[in-house]
Amino acid sequence: MRTSIATVCISGTLEQKMLACAKAGFDGIEIFEQDLTVSPMSPEEVLALANRLGLSLDLFQPFRDFEGVDENTFVANLARAEAKFQLMNRLGISTMLLCSNVGTATINDDELFVTQIRALGELAAGYGVKIAYEALAWGTFVNTYGHSWRIVQKVNHPNVGLCLDSFHILSRGDDPAGIAAIPAEKIFFVQLADAPVLSMDILSWSRHYRVFPGEGAFELDAFMGHLVRSGYDGIVSLEIFNDVFRQSNVERTAVDGMRSLIWLQDKTATLLGAGATTYPLGISALPGAQEASGFDYAEIRTEDPEAVAGMLAQLGFSFRGQHRRKPVTLWSAGNARIIINTQRSRGITAEVSGFGIQVPDATLGTMRATALKAPVVPRHHTVGEQPLHGFTAPDATEVFFGTTATEPAWTAEFGDGSALSDTGSITGIDHINLAQPWQAFDESVLFYTSTLNLAARPGTEVPSPMGLVRSQVLRTTDGAVRLALNIVPHGLEGTGDRAPSYPEHIAVHTDDIISLARQAVAAGMEFLPVPNNYYEDLAARFALSGETLVQLQELNLLYDRDEHGEFLHFYTETVGSMFLEVVQRRGGYDGYGAPNAPVRLAAQFERNRLTTY
Amino acid sequence: MRTSIATVCISGTLEQKMLACAKAGFDGIEIFEQDLTVSPMSPEEVLALANRLGLSLDLFQPFRDFEGVDENTFVANLARAEAKFQLMNRLGISTMLLCSNVGTATINDDELFVTQIRALGELAAGYGVKIAYEALAWGTFVNTYGHSWRIVQKVNHPNVGLCLDSFHILSRGDDPAGIAAIPAEKIFFVQLADAPVLSMDILSWSRHYRVFPGEGAFELDAFMGHLVRSGYDGIVSLEIFNDVFRQSNVERTAVDGMRSLIWLQDKTATLLGAGATTYPLGISALPGAQEASGFDYAEIRTEDPEAVAGMLAQLGFSFRGQHRRKPVTLWSAGNARIIINTQRSRGITAEVSGFGIQVPDATLGTMRATALKAPVVPRHHTVGEQPLHGFTAPDATEVFFGTTATEPAWTAEFGDGSALSDTGSITGIDHINLAQPWQAFDESVLFYTSTLNLAARPGTEVPSPMGLVRSQVLRTTDGAVRLALNIVPHGLEGTGDRAPSYPEHIAVHTDDIISLARQAVAAGMEFLPVPNNYYEDLAARFALSGETLVQLQELNLLYDRDEHGEFLHFYTETVGSMFLEVVQRRGGYDGYGAPNAPVRLAAQFERNRLTTY
Q1: What range does the domain containing B106 cover?
Q2: Which of B16, B64, B87, B247 to probe the A interface (max A CBs under 10 A)?
Q3: What CATH number is given to the structural domain containing B134?
Q4: How does pLDDT run across A242-301, given as a tens digit for each residue?
Q5: Half-sphere exposure in the Cβ direction for A178 (13 Å, CA)
Q6: Residues B495 and B356 in one domain
Q7: Which segment, A342-346, A442-446, B420-424, is predicted with the most confidence on average?
């Protein structure tokens, strides 16, 4: 098969779109007619540019509202089609998408559809054009691929075949297994789209909320499996109508789309098992995914390390010394390693700038990320230093792979490498919370899940004084690595790709939060204050002893409980755009204290005078 | 009745919300519990602040998932309720909202609901609290107001009554007429929300897309009419869950909400006819709405008037001279008057800064706008000058009322007031297109429709290289005044309230666009170029003669047709963030050439290198 993408997926002029698609590595593109109509490039210029870029022009689309009409309309429709066939000849495009009629069809008669589509096929044959008939999910009379396939069989014309679109099939809950039984030579084109689970009319869902494979909820690996079993060896093309993608940077969105196909081929290969047909899209196989065993470190960038260092000391972190060559220091407590970096920190009070995860084979992790088009972070290392394998995520976070180890080799590059003496009870990094500009969210989900092999959990929404914050957790199965992505409200995005007005945080876990909190308070730490009203509501919600309540309130601790266990946590004050959280999980509690997040956001809003206007 | 608003509608801390609601003129507020829980203010402090601001605390909400549960849960629920009654006593709030159970109800038995709610009412009575029972549209067992009313009747307790919410009733398509038959003393609370027509699950629709009355599609005047007929004289409160409002400026959103109630009372009064009960919300009556007879003028603000003046001259506008006192010039053609203003223009290349409309009584128009809390534009006039009555719209456009006249009196303040000699065929202003920051859109729709007495037409979406542009027309019945509001894609909003990167325009109409275009070309005007591909598509879509096509293409004219007539139009080049359009309507064509808008946006994107990133 070959990869393609519809020009309607991305922003810019037709020329900008073509350049971006070629650069991202697609084999070809679908020309969405309106992109051509509004372009100053002639069809011949478009073809010449495509040739120069090495892009095939795979499909001309859409041709609408053709079949099931009265005789006068039919004659006019044929004339309209012929003008487009002539245009396609000039573009050198041999396949046209025919959408099932949603507007002008008045006669519900399969025989009439067959007769009219056969006449279209006959006319198309004279121009060397093939018609790929697609059942739109909201087609007036034809809206399932089974129905369009019955019609195509009855048309029985070499120039008429099917277009299969995963959205139109899966959005209706239709079973795609029947695809495997369709003769491959009658499948003229395949379009792929994923989508989140939304209960809305299918047309709005389709036109605004489609996402790239791996960013939604459809089982597209299974869909691809049926396609492979049919023997199909044609074009697989992304056709994504998404309001955000259409407003975003064209090159970046094209890469996001290509990444989704690389990921999908890998998922499909896993599903199908080993064999010659397991890499159906003709993309090189992805190096194997590895389960991360934990965080290697978290990094804070700051112009002035004093405030952050002070907080770490108050929490009982050990100072491990300065890097032998860079203006970077290491702090650790148990398995939690935090790096304070003053490089490239001009104007940055403090921010969560990156993190590392540990995998069995860091080089393999790097190879996989590179194959997924993750942008490499340039990072030098000298003789005797551990190599660093890093990438920049869509939210500008720098992500590195390290090798699984209780004491990573790179820590020897700090201070004198002397033995560690913890003074607190912190055991490791629990999770990292990263702010996402809204236009990067879907891209980030696919980036982190595919490169780090994490799974996306269902999202939540957290009320705050600045608006609703959408939150989604990505994690390993065992919870060793957990990322919480927050889409920040309008006005807090900051400039560029970062969301500096909305604080990000690093959460560490402990076995004894009460003692740790007492120790931190004794060391002079000030926690984010929790209002008295919160504790009164806690008393009404949970049967907690008076003693427990007093202890929680005295230490500004927040509390949550579910059927598996309990969760206690507290927050430090915010420095710049970052803060720290300390959590204790008791029993099988596996959440993040979501009911307490509004309390935290409101307190930060009060303290820091955050404002959206 | 008295006016109120739920704190959940708006952004900020509880204190900021209370200050904004008081300033906007609400009689009281509903305390949304979470706003209190996250607040550092104690209940006593909240009460004291409310007293100082003259706000009543009308409702404590929500209390959820109470009835239809097993005995153990019931006992726990009563304990939870009692804690909240104690809290309400401290707040001085006497009414609690009880939402029908959506989470924990396991037993579908009206008798059980009645027994459990009666016990709650009995417990509430001891605290002087009344329970307002509301059927949520997605309640597990109770989801219609008819059902909740049957339960309240069976409960038959003085402390248990109904809460009626327009969203929960109208979103299900339920008939609100039955409200008139409910005894007023059993209606304990009324909540109002409007909503756009959306086909999605009711819960998502309710939690994210509610809007203030007049900004959606519900017939809330009829709803209010049923309420008036019931004899209800209690509180009418806005309860709007809207993602945008929760992110927007708190004071402005509160005023938007108050405006919606002023507008709604006026609509209700019109529906009910004259009488003592026609102003049910206790707000002073709005001065009568007037049908605008046309545009008085359009105004362009520019630092350097040469470019705009040149375009007007090329289109055959007459220069009418300088204002006798201000750095402002007047140009006219037929009934189209365009003012070029260089006041407060530093850094502005050119923008559409305002417009005037003509009404029978300008003073009455001003009084109505003032009553609708339109912010007044400070504008001085001296002896012998016409008074100006102006307001700033949410999109920062300055809007003025003038008196209906073919030659307005104020034109005498320009030049020598000598007789006008048109050289072109322009007959008047057809429409004005204004860019809207996305967060101001709903507010703008209500502002323009209520202050200028315009009606909102169904919206459309226009594809562009920068993303989808949402467009909505507001107009008088006869089309004498037409505004097209465009929500601009991300990145084009500019700073503050204006959307300067997205061009706005003034469209004038003519009886003979062919001659006018020829004349303008001869005068050296350059039109926005239309791509050749457009004319090829036009030929495929419409049966136009070759001669017509050649003429259209030669003059860069765009064309549209519907069942009523034809539309021809062209665009000038963009200067700053504005351009001009010339249109000719033939026959009964009443649209705006929407199919051509993508061509225009793409050409402007190409010419001006507009970019979103």
Answers
A1: 2-278
A2: B247
A3: 3.20.20.150
A4: 988 988 889 999 999 999 999 999 999 888 886 655 678 888 888 888 999 999 999 999
A5: 13
A6: yes
A7: A442-446
User: In 3D, which of A521, A551, A507, A506 has the Cα closest to residue A314?
Assistant: A521
Q: Inter-chain contact A198–B200, Cβ cutoff 8 Å?
A: yes
pLDDT tens track for B133-152 = 999 999 999 999 999 999 99
Cis status of the peptide bond prior to A62, with omega within 30 of 0: yes
Q: Which parts of A are annotated binding residues for Mg(2+)?
A: 431, 505, 581
Whole-number Å distance between alpha carbons of B582 and B516: 9
- CB contacts < 8 A (A, B): 152
Residue B65 banded pLDDT, cuts 50, 70, 90: very high
Neighbouring CB atoms inside 10 A of B523's CB total: 15
Chain A interface mutation, best of B37, B64, B502, B534, highest count of A Cβ atoms under 10 Å: B37
A39:B602 CB<8 A? yes
B67 within domain boundaries: yes
Q: Identify the pLDDT of residue A287.
A: 86
Q: pTM for the whole thing?
A: 0.91
* Conformation bin of residue A77: beta by default, left when phi > 0, alpha when psi is -120 to 50: alpha
Cross-chain residue pair B34–A491, CB shorter than 8 Å: no
Q: Which of A12, A13, A467 sits opposite B243 (nearest CB)?
A: A467
Q: Which residues in chain A are contacts of B43 at CB distance < 8 A?
A: 533
Does A389 score more than 80 pLDDT?
A: no
Count of structural domains within chain B: 2
The ipTM, to two decimals, is 0.88
A335 and A270 in a single domain? The answer is no
| Longest CA pairwise span in chain B (Å) | 89
Domain finish residue from B254, B278, B302: B278
The shortest C-alpha distance from A12 to chain B (Å) reads 4
Do B322 and B269 reside in the same domain of the chain?
Answer: no
Any domain includes B393: yes
Task: Give the closest-approach CA distance of B440 to chain A in angstroms.
Answer: 13
A54 and A130 fall within a common domain: yes
The H or E element that residue B456 is part of is strand B455-456
Residues of B in contact with A39 (CB under 8 A): 531, 533, 602
Which residues does chain A have within 8 Å of residue B104's beta carbon, measured at their own beta carbons? none
Q: How far is CA A154 from CA A50, A129, A350, in A?
A: 36, 19, 67
**Nearest C-alpha in B relative to A601:** B38
Q: Are residues B9 and B130 in the same domain?
A: yes
Contacts of A220 (CB under 8 A, 6+ apart): A166, A192, A194, A213, A214, A264, A267
Contact between A437 and A497 under an 8 Å Cβ cutoff? The reply is yes
The answer on A112 and A28 residing in a single domain is: yes
Q: Do B83 and A39 touch (CB under 8 A)?
A: no
Per residue in B313-352, pLDDT tens? 999 999 999 998 899 999 999 999 999 999 988 888 999 9
Asked if B80 lies within 8 A of A606 by C-beta distance, the reply is no
Query: B325 vs chain A: nearest CA distance in angstroms?
Result: 37
Contact check, Cβ <8 Å, B39/A466: no
Which CATH number does the domain housing residue B352 bear?
3.10.180.10
Q: Are B253 and B357 part of one and the same domain?
A: no
Judged by average pLDDT, the poorest of A349-353, B274-278, B345-349 is: B274-278
Domain assignment present for B467: yes
Cβ contact B476:B466 at 8 Å = no
Of B227, B248, B278, the domain-final residue: B278
Is residue B273 very low, low, confident or very high in pLDDT (cuts 50, 70, 90)?
confident
Cβ–Cβ gap B467/A247 under 8 Å: yes
- Chain A residue with minimum CA distance to B496: A613
- Does residue B285 fall inside a structural domain? no
Count of CB atoms situated within 10 Å of the CB of A220 = 24
B460 and B484 together in one domain: yes
Which chain A residue is nearest to residue B466, measuring alpha carbons? Answer: A247
Structure tokens at B610: 């507009």
